[in-house]
Write a sequence for this structure.
């Protein structure tokens, strides 16, 4: 996959995944996450962090949450470390349909 700067990375470059739903306070400095926003962040071995929920669309009409769910299954099956939290999950139910919150729940619960 590519980073916004054009650097090419391999899935093997992923060191850890951080995923969850933001709460009342911003969890990442200088972030724009609001209460109830789902985040999925890949931290690479060189320290680069890629926020997959901020990449800005896909080539097809498939919602990013469905794509992230498929990638997440692959990453977890590869044995990539994952920090996942169900804390604040209820907040995402306030603004999203059940089809999307079900996918987010699947992602958050998919750990080894």
């Amino acid at each position: 996959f590519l980073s916004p700067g054009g650097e090419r990375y391999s899935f093997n470059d992923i060191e850890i995944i951080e995923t969850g739903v933001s709460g009342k306070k911003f969890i990442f400095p200088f972030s724009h996450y609001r209460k109830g926003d789902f985040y999925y962040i890949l931290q690479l071995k060189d320290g680069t962090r890629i926020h997959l929920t901020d990449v800005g669309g896909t080539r097809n009409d498939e919602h990013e949450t469905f794509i992230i769910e498929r990638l997440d299954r692959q990453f977890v099956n590869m044995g990539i470390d994952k920090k996942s939290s169900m804390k604040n999950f209820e907040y995402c139910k306030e603004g999203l349909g059940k089809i999307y919150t079900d996918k987010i729940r699947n992602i958050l619960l998919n750990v080894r």
Notes: The two ends are 24 Å apart (CA to CA). The chain is about 25% helix and 20% strand. The first helix runs from residue 64 to 77. The beta strands are 14-21, 38-44, 49-51, 81-84.
